[in-house]
Amino acid sequence: MKLYYKPGSCSLFPHIILHETRTKFTLVNVDLRTKKTEQGDDYLQINPKGMVPALALDDGTILTETIAIAMYLADKAPQYNLIAPSSTIHHYRAIEWLAYISTELHKSFSPLFRPGTPELYKDLLKSYLEQRFRYLNQVLSEHDYLVGNRFGVADAYLFTICRWAHDLKFDLIQFPALTAYLERVSGRPAVEKALTAEGLDVKY
């Protein structure tokens, strides 16, 4: 398999899952500005959406979108218990969290990285995100992980997105349960491997 990625982006999420499932894969860095891979290939020929991640399967099939890739990998390696069987409520709790992280956090962070975003809008987004952090802090004050009290796909996604809070200098000290959770996740061997491979800080 090949994971097309950009360091520190949302592609870190499936990158972590690849390590958690001990899948054999190679990384291909993508310049999202030029839409070229590190080998100079036209990335739009691989993923016409022009975004990362994309996962090239061994048979040449291309799978895109973070959640789809992560769930595919988790389902292919059920022995690692990264998502519960579809017959259980925990399976749907995981999907519930993946949807929440995608719509409430991921999409709210994205404009903060765009240089043309008005400062007033950025301030509104930061206030909105802090409300979500407060909710997450409440949940994580009662549970070590999001679903079934064990690490799973939703945790890899939340960790990936919350790293952006660190990059953007959000003050998360006021959310001690969330901070402790992020430190706990960052200490997982698979997470450390993914962070190191992308040249990111290993410790949160």
Provide mean pLDDT, rounded.
96
CATH class value of the largest domain: Mainly Alpha
What gross morphology would you assign?
globular
Proper CATH architecture of the largest domain: Up-down Bundle
Major sheet, described briefly? 5 strands, mixed
What attributes characterize this protein structure?
8 helices, single chain, Glutaredoxin, 5 strands, globular, 204 residues, alpha+beta, Glutathione transferase GstA, Glutathione S-transferase Yfyf (Class Pi), Chain A, domain 2, Glutathione-S-Trfase_C-like, transferase, glutathione transferase activity
Write the layout of secondary structure elements.
Layout (H helix, E strand, L loop, with lengths): L1 E4 L6 H9 L5 E6 L4 E2 L5 H4 L7 E3 L5 E3 L1 H11 L12 H21 L9 H22 L12 H15 L8 H11 L2 H9 L7
Parallel strand pairs: 1-2
Antiparallel strand pairs: 1-4, 2-3, 4-5
Helix pairs in contact: 1-3, 1-6, 1-8, 4-5, 4-6, 5-7
Verbal overview:
With 204 residues, the chain is an alpha+beta fold. It has two domains: 2-80, Glutaredoxin; 89-188, Glutathione S-transferase Yfyf (Class Pi), Chain A, domain 2 (Up-down Bundle). The chain contains eight helices and five strands; from the N terminus they run E-H-E-E-H-E-E-H-H-H-H-H-H. It has helices at residues 12-20, 43-46, 66-76, 89-109, 119-140, 153-167, 176-186, 189-197; strands at residues 2-5, 26-31, 36-37, 54-56, 62-64. It has a five-stranded mixed sheet. A hairpin with a 4-residue loop joins strand 2 (26-31) and strand 3. Helix 1 packs parallel to helix 3, helix 1 (12-20) crosses helix 6 (153-167) and helix 1 packs across helix 8. The longest helix has 22 residues, at 119-140. The protein is globular and about 45 Å long.
